[in-house]
Amino acid sequence: MGGFPQVRMRRLRKNEPMRRLFRETSLGVDDLIYPLFVIHGRGVRREVESMPEVFQYSVDKLTREAKEVAALGINAVLLFGIPQEKDEVGSSAYQPDGVIQQAIRAIKKAAPGLLVITDICLCEYTSHGYCGVVVDGDVDNDKTLDLLARMALSHAEAGADIVAPSDMMDGRVKAIREALDGSGFINLPIMSYAVKYASAFYGPFRDAAQSVPQFGDRRSYQMDSANVREALREVEQDVAEGADIIMIKPALAYLDVIRKVRDTFNHPIAAYNVSGEYSMVKAAASRGWIDERRIVMEILTSIKRAGADIIVTYHAKDVARWLIE
Q1: Domain range spanning residue 88?
Q2: Looking at the predicted structure, is the pLDDT value of residue 215 above 80?
Q3: Which residues contact 242 (CB under 8 A, 6 or more apart)?
Q4: How far apart are CA 183 and CA 199, in angstroms?
């Protein structure tokens, strides 16, 4: 229909109400999941050195945080546990009185409307820091499946709303689905970390979860950062095994992967705005190099724009407050 000067793209950008009216991608508090770290003990509220404003909480301190999260309108939290004792098979992960099992029950009592999602992985619970049973220096995939299923079932019995396997073992969604269904939890969703890359962006998380590997690395089971076709195969496999929600982790360096998965599958997609992404923003903001609020909103909007339905982010509380203002 012609170009400039008849067509002036700036007409729909001239002020904030106009920009909001024609905004293509929206970010709301309903899109956010807030991660929480639960540690054994009492009276503990310990800031993670590499993650400013992120804390490890004992169960008694966790309930106050859960109430605050719920009051901000955030619908869900994702729990990671740090047990008192670790062993080679992560036995604390699937005990009825484990730290996460206690946390689930406490949150459900303190903030009953808050959805509780639990991480299903053994790395925080094993003495070697790996996500399963180690045999001859490597994680034995098949020997790990039963332990992951037991862990998921124990969380379900404690009252979890969603279980989220993040271990990257082949076949774990099927093993967990069969365990849940066999015990009557047929309506409990699985949010599978179908696409989890071996990433340098996880560094601060390993401080928070106290899950640094004692030798080697996790590249034998986490994905190579150069691969995207493999991501589609991983998603296809997990969907076939019964995954209800697909997780992609990390988010910011893998926006193209989020878009590929969105264009290929109709399942809900979650993306994890991980610890390294968070800490880089916090570090730069603390020096006055960036506008933290604008940067965070731009990053999270980009993750939504790429195709994620929900975002796991340590910025969730701040974003919820900003959206209220």
Answers
A1: 27-248
A2: no
A3: 173, 174, 177, 190
A4: 35
Give the predicted TM-score (pTM) of the model: 0.94
Instruction: Tell me whether residue 86 is one of the annotated catalytic residues.
Output: no
Q: Reply yes or no on whether 249 is catalytic.
A: yes
* Predicted local distance difference test score (pLDDT) of residue 205: 77
Say how many domains are in the chain: 1
CATH of the domain at 157: 3.20.20.70
pLDDT tens per residue across span 40-89: 999 999 999 999 999 999 999 999 999 999 999 999 999 999 988 888 88
In sequence order, what E strands does the chain have? Answer: 32-39, 45-48, 51-57, 76-82, 115-120, 134-135, 138-139, 162-165, 191-196, 245-249, 269-273, 310-313
| Active-site residue, selected from the candidate residues 61, 196, 260, 317 | 196
Residue 18 falls within a domain, yes or no? no
The predicted pLDDT at position 212 comes to: 62
Q: Residues 61, 86, 249, 317: which is the catalytic one?
A: 249
